[in-house]
Design goal:
mainly alpha; Serine Threonine Protein Phosphatase 5, Tetratricopeptide repeat; about 70% helix; globular; Tetratricopeptide repeat protein
Length: about 170
């Protein structure tokens, strides 16, 4: 089975997208609506078919994080569904579990631990424990578990405060 090859955009366009992403990251938490606007502009600049470019994943990841921060989880789910459908329908070997983990996190934000569990199990099947090395321990525990205590999961997830974690990550990696 082949591994998908991604393409580079024309340098100036890619630089513009990166710059918008950096501006979006810097706008949080002072102005989350400006952050969302800049992330959306960066996403919109990626030409169709969007999921064939090297810059797509990082741009989408940032955009979804900001959408989730602004409580626009339904839009996050739509975007992540598009990416996951593209990955699964391409016929290539899937080597990147990130979209599945991000979908699970978005579903946990919506208090849907059973659905999140399914996506975390898929992420684990793609990348085993390695896929979770930069994720909260809870996610790997959920991925490996056969049964969930939904209330316990939601309490533990709430304690993670993923928005605070997002701000910390963006501050460390502008």
């Amino acid at each position: 089975m082949n591994i998908r090859m991604y393409h580079d955009l024309e340098a100036q366009l890619e630089e513009t997208i990166w710059a918008l992403g950096e501006e979006a990251a810097l706008a949080l938490p002072l102005d989350s609506s400006i952050a969302e606007e800049k992330a959306r502009k960066a996403w919109d600049l990626i030409p169709e078919p969007k999921h064939t470019w090297g810059i797509t994943s990082v741009t989408l990841h940032l955009y979804v994080q900001i959408l989730n921060y602004n409580n626009h989880m339904q839009r996050s789910i739509e975007l992540l569904n598009e990416e996951i459908l593209d990955l699964e329908s391409a016929g290539d070997r899937i080597i990147h579990a990130g979209p599945y983990i991000q979908m699970a996190e978005t579903l946990l934000l919506q208090s849907k631990p059973a659905l999140a569990h399914e996506y975390l199990q898929k992420a684990y099947s793609i990348g085993s424990a390695r896929a979770f090395r930069d994720q909260p321990k809870l996610y790997l525990e959920m991925a490996k578990s056969k049964a969930l205590d939904k209330q316990d999961i939601l309490l533990r997830f709430k304690a993670l405060d993923v928005n605070a974690q997002l701000l910390s990550e963006l501050k460390d990696n502008p």
